[in-house]
Design brief:
TIM Barrel; 18 helices; 31% helix
């Protein structure tokens, strides 16, 4: 007797192969049989007639690791499951919850404050401790963890911007190796964010050396996607090529209209690297705006020593003027880690009109959420820079923003279409869900948007190919072989949707709407969404990389 039978479905199995009709029988959390199976042989039956049966969607780039330790995480992260996501890859962009050095924990807390729903208990010291903690408590999703370069650098050097010594590189590599031994699937870096931006290429090569022993992946948010885009891409290729490891170019993009013409050369760099044997792929946010901290507009030197020292600098009139000049006029150049250098000028690339405040920590400034920075500045009689600087001071750095200009803007997405249609482009949300403020629309609709807008409406790729980009492609990247496919023996992570209507309902300025067309979601054989209704069950698995 099967536990569950999904019958009469139009199966898109995750390989990209043409769909076929069939039934899927589930027992003990796994897919027992695919074919034509008698309904009487199952305890529960879902009739998927007229619906697509696909593997559960995999968000290859999230920051959910700072929410998963909270008992209410299933509610905070509910928008993910409503768009069909069953597995999340965590620890991205240089931010992870472990390892912890008690001497620098306060720096780590402030470094990651914008990713937290509320203060964490920090009851763990290493990756094993963290994974054990969330596993014991229960998780709503399958979790594929990464360890982060930024967190490791804080452990060893705090927010010291000086180059790492040989001894310090050795300590960082040792910590990376220990995290891999404890189950991490790879190491991420976020090289536009201090302290990651303080590192040089040799440091990255050193810290990634242990990954080869585990088949680990180096994932990276480049140093810059505008002026130094091509050099930054060559750098991550070099890290992978030198160490003989796989590389995932996180949320590939060209940032700012002036730099969109570099897109073809960027993709060519990927093709050329693969042609000579470098295992590099990339993922894409299906939007022309990204979300991150408002502090990303600032030059790295301003953040040396952490958020508290940044605030002191912004309160000093002369230092503030110097920061303002850099934000407005400085042009990033290679290499950006030298004293006075910086990787990406967000204000130049987006323009002040392309920056939208989406979350602030205090009630006093809630009226600014969902508003364009220039509109706020005009209303209060300040420059956009001063509005941003004053907000950082008042909110202790806890301010999130949307930045437009990534392969398109509020008017066009032509460049994004080209990138997302690339055969090696996996899909991600990169959405930061904390239960506070206005989220990025990707938090609610990224995967349905790919199915409905990019596939069904624009015809950039078949629906089967869309499903592949959101399932097996991402899990293959991390060597997870028993998920991401409708195949006998695989874990039963399944998303069932209406092909004709699936799509997002939110917008940039009104994002908090669950998508249309996601009817059922099954995680490890347990239905968590039925007829569009979520039950909040904690039936996810914490995955650990095996040597």
């Amino acid at each position: 007797m099967f536990d569950l039978l999904v019958k009469h479905g139009k199966i898109m199995d995750g390989t990209g192969n043409p769909w076929f009709f069939g039934n899927v029988a589930i027992k003990d959390g796994k897919i027992e049989k695919v074919g034509f199976i008698d309904s009487s042989s199952a305890q529960q039956v879902i009739d998927a007639k007229g619906l697509v049966v696909a593997p559960g969607f995999v968000d290859i780039h999230t920051h959910a690791d700072f929410i998963l330790p909270l008992k209410e995480h299933s509610k905070i992260l509910e928008p993910f499951v409503h768009q069909g996501i069953t597995t999340v890859v965590t620890g991205n962009c240089g931010y992870s919850t472990a390892p912890i050095n008690q001497g620098t924990l306060d720096l780590l807390k402030k470094y990651s404050a914008f990713l937290q729903g509320r203060e964490l208990s920090w009851e763990w010291l290493d990756m094993k401790g963290y994974l054990d903690f969330i596993e014991k408590q229960g998780v709503a999703y399958n979790v594929v963890p990464l360890v982060a370069h930024g967190t490791i650098r804080i452990y060893v050097k705090g927010f010291d911007s000086s180059p790492a010594t040989s001894s310090e590189k050795g300590k960082m590599a040792k910590l990376a190796g220990e995290a891999m031994e404890q189950g991490a699937f790879g190491l991420s870096a976020g090289l536009i964010y201090p302290p990651g931006s303080y590192s040089d290429t040799d440091e990255l090569i050193a810290i990634c050396k242990p990954l080869k022993n585990f088949g680990g992946v180096f994932t990276c948010h480049l140093r810059g996607e505008s002026e130094i885009l091509l050099s930054a891409t060559k750098e991550i290729i070099k890290v992978g090529e030198t160490n003989g490891i796989a590389v995932e170019h996180s949320h590939l993009e060209t940032y700012g209209e002036e730099y969109w013409p570099q897109r073809d050369r960027l993709l060519a760099l990927h093709d050329e690297a693969r042609a000579r044997g470098v295992d590099i792929t990339f993922d894409v946010i299906p939007y022309t705006a990204a979300n991150t901290t408002i502090m990303a507009i600032l030059p790295p030197w301003a953040l040396e020593g952490g958020v508290d020292k940044l605030i002191k600098r912004l309160k000093d009139k002369e230092v503030r003027k110097r920061i303002n000049v850099d934000v407005e006029d400085a042009i990033p150049s290679w290499p950006p880690w030298l004293p006075g250098g910086w990787p990406n000028s967000f204000a130049r690339s987006s323009g002040w009109k392309g920056i939208v405040i989406i979350w602030v920590g205090s009630k006093a400034n809630k009226h600014m959420e969902g508003r364009i920075l220039t509109e706020i500045a005009e209303e209060v009689g300040k420059t956009p820079f001063d509005v941003a600087a004053d907000l950082i001071i008042e909110e202790q750095g806890q301010v999130m923003a949307l930045y437009f200009g990534f392969d398109g803007d509020m008017e066009t997405d032509e460049g994004l279409r080209k990138v997302i249609a690339y055969p090696r482009a996996a899909i991600n949300t990169d959405a930061i869900l904390t239960g506070r403020g206005v989220p990025h629309p990707a938090a609610y609709g990224a995967f349905p948007k790919v199915l409905g807008y990019f596939s069904r409406e624009l015809g950039l790729f078949t629906m089967e190919e869309a499903v592949r980009k959101m399932t097996s492609m991402s899990l293959q990247r991390f060597g997870v072989k028993d998920r991401g496919l409708i195949r006998e023996g695989c874990f039963a992570d399944i998303t069932i949707f209406k092909e004709a209507t699936v799509g997002e309902k939110g917008t940039y300025f009104d994002p908090a709407h669950f998508p249309e067309g996601i009817e059922y979601v099954i995680i490890n054989g347990t239905p968590v969404i039925q007829n569009g209704v979520y039950n909040g069950k904690l039936c996810g698995h914490v995955l650990r990389k095996q040597r």
